[in-house]
């Protein structure tokens, strides 16, 4: 039963007076930075790591003890989101502290302008050593802001990966997550100990096609993952959701994604990275995936049985790749502890966006729906930042750059659109004060269409309880969700007369955010 009292409460969250909302955030920007000295920063970013597959957030599927260790010795943001759920643009947002339309990297094909202000450049001007190891995915190579870089070409490969360095291409033997961690620790060991540092550790995992270290290939093979409650979503009232091409049933490729040998594939490389492996790696691979392929062919599955089999294979392979990530986070934490660096270093863990683990029957990301827009964000903090536990405020990846600059005792450039999270990380008293004036809505805009997964262009606003989305271009449509009563976003309540006042308020807030961020891309 709809309760009018809920409407009034929600309205106060969704329709904050325009003159208040970002005046409050501006007030946060203007607060004095009270850190005694610059902090070292280690930023670990994974690719497509869903919060559902990180046990500090959700213990349904797997355990991630090293990531949980970060949360236990720091903070876990429970309402962390991105502003454009796709890899290249998310990385540009990280560096610039600006929405995609403002930094110019609106999709994976757009060129990233490295001449604009980025937080590594600001840190360099403050005397920091800066380094990036792993996935770059912004085109070309880093030209400004980094004293040291070694990056994967494009998406990179899981086995025996090539790295681009200032001296050319370097081939490495082993598994990519181990190698990125090795290179990160090697840089830490040879850095100038007299200066603060910022290290970006950008992993390839757990990007499609979810290939694990050979030591982990047999993990989870005896586990049956629970189907999400929305696995058989019929997309009623949601045209864009019905139009997508990221269905586990229809779009997961048997050879490319699920490692079945000698079957027809829609991709040029039907068996993934097998040809890159050495003989030992191939033997380990064949020991596991050979019998899986044989059983699949013998069983001749169809219908629901085939779809559920594909889901289990997807989940098992994804979970195996997460295992190596968690192990390597532990390796890096152990190194920092051994070198007595934890007392003056902030360690941040995030993903470039969220991911679907079968919710709505999907894999991939892109949509403004919760599983895609939401991302894990953990911070392991030194004693000088005394906040611990969960932080519920709405935060977004435009906030990372301002946060890192303030952690370096610098002044955030006016052009950056995010807000420093530092006030939320200090004493409990400081956090309570900051929370009173924190933002109450987030802006999102996805641009990449037409593209591989056929997710329509859309923009929208999310408040603490409600979400309003505008899909535009082909078959334009408005969608609106009450996240309290419909957390899985199954019922589009746009034009429901019971929500008319809230709908009007959300429209007002969306228009205000578009003006505030100067998004004139339509």
Report on this model:
The chain is of the alpha/beta class and 522 residues long. The chain is 34% helix and 15% strand. The strands form 4 sheets. It has an 8-stranded mixed sheet with strand order 5-4-8-1-9-10-2-11, sandwiched between helices. Helix 7 (176-190) packs parallel to helix 11. Residues 1-24 have low confidence and may be disordered.
What class would the helix/strand composition place it in?
A: alpha/beta
In which order are the strands of the major sheet placed? Answer: 5-4-8-1-9-10-2-11
The total count of helices amounts to: 16
Residue share in helix: 25-40%
Number of beta strands: 16
- Arithmetic mean of pLDDT: 93
Beta-strand residue percentage: 15-25%
Categorize the overall geometry.
Answer: globular
Q: What does the radius of gyration come to? A: 23 Å
Low-confidence stretches: 1-24
Largest sheet: 8 strands, mixed
The N- and C-terminal alpha carbons lie at a distance of 38 Å
| Oligomeric organization of the protein chains | single chain
Brief descriptors of the model:
eight-stranded mixed β-sheet; 16 helices; 522 residues; alpha/beta; globular
What is the topological layout?
Blueprint: H1 4-14, H2 18-30, E1 40-46, H3 65-72, E2 74-77, E3 80-81, H4 87-96, H5 100-103, H6 119-125, E4 129-135, E5 148-152, E6 162-165, E7 168-171, H7 176-190, E8 197-202, H8 239-243, H9 248-251, H10 279-299, H11 303-338, E9 345-351, H12 370-373, E10 377-380, E11 389-391, E12 395-396, H13 400-407, H14 422-425, H15 428-436, E13 441-446, E14 458-463, E15 466-471, E16 477-482, H16 500-516
Parallel strand pairs: 1-8, 1-9, 2-11, 3-12, 4-5, 4-8
Antiparallel strand pairs: 2-10, 6-7, 9-10, 13-14, 14-15, 15-16
């Amino acid at each position: 039963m709809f309760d009018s009292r809920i409407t009034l409460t929600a309205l106060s969250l969704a329709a904050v007076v325009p003159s208040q909302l970002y005046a409050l955030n501006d007030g946060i920007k203007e607060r004095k930075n009270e850190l005694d000295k610059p902090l070292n920063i280690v930023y670990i970013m994974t690719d497509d790591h869903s919060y559902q597959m990180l046990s500090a957030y959700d213990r349904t599927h797997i355990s991630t003890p090293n990531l949980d260790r970060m949360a236990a010795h720091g903070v876990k943001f429970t309402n962390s989101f991105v502003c454009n759920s796709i890899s290249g643009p998310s990385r540009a947002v990280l560096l610039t502290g600006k929405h995609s339309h403002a930094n110019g990297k609106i999709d994976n094909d757009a060129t990233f302008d490295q001449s604009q202000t980025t937080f590594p450049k600001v840190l360099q001007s403050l005397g920091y050593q800066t380094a990036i190891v792993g996935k770059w995915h912004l085109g070309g190579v880093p030209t400004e802001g980094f004293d040291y870089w070694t990056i994967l070409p494009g998406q990179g490969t899981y086995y025996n990966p090539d790295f681009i360095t200032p001296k050319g291409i370097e081939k490495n033997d082993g598994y990519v997550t181990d190698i990125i961690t090795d290179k990160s620790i090697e840089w830490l060991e040879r850095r100038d100990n007299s200066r603060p540092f910022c290290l970006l550790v950008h992993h390839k995992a757990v990007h499609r096609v979810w290939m694990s270290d050979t030591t982990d290939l047999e993990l989870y093979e005896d586990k049956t993952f629970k189907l999400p409650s929305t696995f058989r979503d019929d997309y009623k009232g949601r045209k864009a959701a019905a139009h997508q091409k990221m269905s586990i049933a229809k779009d997961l490729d048997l050879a490319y994604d699920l490692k079945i040998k000698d079957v027809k594939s829609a991709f040029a490389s039907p068996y993934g990275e097998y040809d890159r492996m050495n003989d030992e790696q191939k033997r380990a691979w064949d020991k596991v995936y050979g019998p899986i392929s044989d059983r699949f062919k013998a069983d001749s599955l169809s219908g629901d049985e085939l779809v559920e089999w594909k889901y289990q294979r997807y989940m098992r392979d994804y979970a195996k790749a997460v295992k190596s990530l968690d192990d390597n986070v532990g390796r890096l934490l152990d190194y920092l502890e051994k070198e007595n660096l934890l007392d003056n270093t902030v360690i941040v863990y995030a993903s470039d966006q969220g991911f679907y683990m079968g919710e709505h029957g999907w894999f991939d990301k892109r949509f403004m729906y919760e599983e895609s827009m939401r991302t894990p964000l953990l911070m392991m903090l030194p004693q000088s930042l005394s906040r611990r536990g969960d932080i519920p405020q709405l935060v977004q990846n435009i906030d990372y750059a301002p946060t890192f600059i303030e952690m370096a005792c610098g002044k955030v450039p006016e052009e950056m659109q995010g807000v420093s999270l530092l006030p939320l990380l200090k004493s409990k008293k400081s956090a309570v004060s900051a929370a009173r004036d924190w933002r109450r809505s987030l802006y999102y805009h996805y641009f990449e269409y037409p593209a591989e997964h056929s997710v329509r262009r859309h923009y929208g606003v999310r408040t603490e309880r409600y979400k309003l989305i505008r899909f535009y271009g082909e078959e334009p449509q408005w969608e609106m969700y009450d996240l309290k009563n419909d957390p899985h976003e199954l019922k589009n309540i746009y034009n429901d007369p019971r929500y008319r006042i809230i709908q009007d308020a959300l429209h007002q807030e969306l228009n205000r955010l578009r003006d505030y961020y100067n998004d004139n891309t339509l």
